[in-house]
Automatic annotation (TrEMBL):
<dbReference type="InterPro" id="IPR036928">
    <property type="entry name" value="AS_sf"/>
</dbReference>
<protein>
    <submittedName>
        <fullName>Amidase</fullName>
    </submittedName>
</protein>
<dbReference type="InterPro" id="IPR023631">
    <property type="entry name" value="Amidase_dom"/>
</dbReference>
<dbReference type="Pfam" id="PF01425">
    <property type="entry name" value="Amidase"/>
</dbReference>
<feature type="domain" description="Amidase">
    <location>
        <begin position="21"/>
        <end position="451"/>
    </location>
</feature>
Length: 478
């Protein structure tokens, strides 16, 4: 990182000891996390790891720009020294996984300190249709630090809330359809969903192998780029794309239609964002439209079929005393209904269990239809209007937490990219009545570096125009 600022969460290899940073963040967690419940499993060895990395630095062995940096990891990503539960009590009493997920191994090799695991919407928010984002049987309910009675978004709820609350500047989330960009937008942080396959999927409790990916959730775009460089193995320096704030010659499309109009306040903030992009030199091509992303029936059919198969393959890597199949998890939930099924059911699990495998004609047809809808829609829009990317509002402002009826999401813009396996990055754009909102940059496959460049330029322009994003006050929203 090129920043020279020193302080907790700084991603430059400055002289501040890692152990001091970890102690400060742990004190911060003790102070504010009881209000938002974002960290479900602190790492008791974090200070020991920090001391070891400080010794390496003192000996002149610096692993890279993230040496000594604390990072929080979503609790559906394998860590060999900490439980990995997907928020489910079915995995809560099982030993930790035998190995780190490849992405966690890369973080540690780069000198990151795993500060702990973050809570999530149980099973990545795909168990019951009336779920509440941020709730899990293992971790309880995570709250939005900007409005404690409002949702932090899902399913990477804890990662988003923790970064917003200052418990770490770096966190890892996962996304199938919106689970990074949604909590990023609702918590006023940056969320980067990479192209599917750019980061290894091994060691991540799966929902859909065709759509799942881990990704960075951070305070700034530059930090997200630095994390992505490490998570992808270091072959591309994504942070190098945060050097140019001049967007002259860049063409950014604006598809309207159903991607706008579900929140007047969000639309107003996004119109201001378009003006900032134009002032930065971009050519904004407005009045466009995306085709519908295929049928909802096809979309959920993919998830139903893939989850049953993918989850069984993952559970085979865990302790033999735990659940081995989706049917085992369903049975566990029924046996522990007072805890697991208290607020919503598991009808999505049950529908998944009824599927016939990945050779099913239903699955094959749905997968081809959804892939075509996602990729043709995005690539066609970019090609027909000679665009480098397009931009939309991210998600509606945070809705009220309702454990009885579930989420009340007004709108989103992540589905096309989910079906296509294409990247997204959400960046704070402003607030609506004190609730953070964001804009999302979309592109074709492997356009992650381009989206990072655009997002960084916008972030810089927004800060110049309006100052740093306000910090949360941990209050009830009225």
């Amino acid at each position: 990182m090129s920043s020279t600022r020193q302080g907790p969460g700084d991603v430059s290899p400055g002289p501040r000891p890692a152990i001091a940073t970890v102690e400060e963040l742990q004190a911060r967690q003790s102070e504010v996390d009881p209000l938002i419940n974002s960290v479900c499993t602190p790492n008791p060895a974090a200070l020991t790891e920090a001391a070891r990395l400080d010794t390496e630095r003192a000996d002149g062995r610096i692993r890279g720009p993230l040496h000594g940096m604390p990072v929080l990891v979503k609790d559906n990503i394998d860590t060999a020294d900490l439980p990995t539960t997907a928020g489910s009590l079915a995995l809560a009493d099982q030993p930790p996984p035998p190995y780190d997920a490849p992405l966690v191994r890369r973080l540690r090799e780069a000198g990151c300190i795993v500060l702990g695991k973050t809570n999530l919407s149980e099973w990545a928010n795909f168990r019951g249709s009336s779920s509440s984002s941020g709730w899990s049987g293992y971790g309880g309910l995570t709250r939005n630090p900007y409005a404690l009675n409002r949702s932090p978004g899902g399913s990477s709820s804890g990662s988003g809330a923790a970064v917003a609350a200052g418990l770490a500047e770096l966190a890892i989330g996962t996304e199938t359809n919106g689970s990074i960009v949604c909590p990023a937008a609702l918590n006023g942080i940056v969320g980067l969903k990479p192209t599917v396959g750019l980061i290894p999927q091994q060691g991540i409790i799966p929902l859909s192998h065709s759509q799942d990916t881990a990704g960075p959730m951070t305070k700034t775009v530059r930090q997200a780029a630095a994390l992505l460089t490490v998570m992808t193995g270091g072959g591309t320096d994504y942070e190098a794309h945060c050097l140019d704030d001049d967007l002259t010659g860049v063409r950014i499309g604006v598809p309207r239609g159903p991607l706008w109009g579900y929140s007047l306040g969000l639309d107003r903030v996004t119109e201001e964002a378009l003006s900032l992009l134009s002032a930065a030199g971009a050519t904004v091509v407005d009045g466009l439209s995306l085709p519908t992303p295929g049928s909802e029936e096809d979309q959920v059919a993919i998830l139903f079929h893939e989850m049953k198969v993918d989850l069984a393959a993952y559970l085979a890597t865990r302790h033999p005393g735990g659940p081995r199949t989706l049917a085992d998890v369903i049975a566990f939930n029924k046996a522990h209904a007072d805890e697991e099924l208290r607020y919503f059911g598991q009808e999505l699990f049950e529908r998944s269990e009824q599927t016939d495998g990945l050779d099913s004609p239903v699955y094959v047809a749905a997968r081809l239809s959804a892939l075509r809808a996602g990729r043709d829609g995005i690539d066609g829009l970019l090609r027909d209007h000679q665009l480098d990317a397009f931009v939309t509002p991210s998600y509606s402002p945070a809705w009220s937490i309702d454990l009885v009826n579930g989420d009340h999401v007004l709108g989103s813009s992540s589905t096309h990219a989910a079906l296509a396996g294409y990247p997204l990055i959400s960046v704070p754009s402003g607030s609506v009545e004190g609730l953070p909102v964001g804009i999302t940059f979309h592109g074709t496959g492997r356009s992650d570096a381009t989206l990072i460049r655009l997002a960084h330029a916008f972030e810089t322009a927004r800060i110049k125009a309006h100052g740093p994003f306000p910090t949360p006050e941990f209050r009830q929203w009225v």
